[in-house]
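Dear colleague,

Thank you for sharing your sequence with our group. We've completed the structure prediction you requested, and as agreed, I am returning the results in plain text so they can be pasted directly into your records. Please verify that the sequence below matches your submission; if there's any discrepancy, let me know and we will rerun it promptly.
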Amino acid sequence: MKPIDQTRFGNPDGNCFNACIASILEIPLEDVPEYIAEAGNYYPKYNKWLEQYNLEILWMRFGHDVPNGYAILCGKSDRGLDHAVVTFKGEIVHDPHPSKVGLIEGTGTNWDIFVMLDPSLHIGSKVTAKDVTDAIQKGFESEVKPIWERGKGRKSNV
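Please find the predicted structure tokens below.
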């Protein structure tokens, strides 16, 4: 996860949700499409776009299980607006708003979790902690690819 801050604020123009997606995927904010401001259910559009990363977003009601990894938590900010933050194992690890205040406690409405579409694309492409350490020590950080890059070009058995 690479923290990226939102650049627009308020409803409906704010881009906190896109900043959360960009942070989790470690991509530039401008690479995330602007679907959230559109009327209606924006999840199918985001999911179509996320296919290139072998991912989709799954909406999960807050108050049930806590996602066991990175997720987006939606709720209310102290500014009285709907807001999104990045969590890891249920703890806020990045608020894309410059205030870094997070959400008002008890206002969480839903988790947006990332689900891998085809896990078989990543079989045999595991990067270990030692691989990461070795690459950093050698100064070749670019050799360690995000998980969705490691399986690119492989054909699924499905």
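Summary note from our side: Residues 16-116 form one domain.

Kind regards,
the structure core
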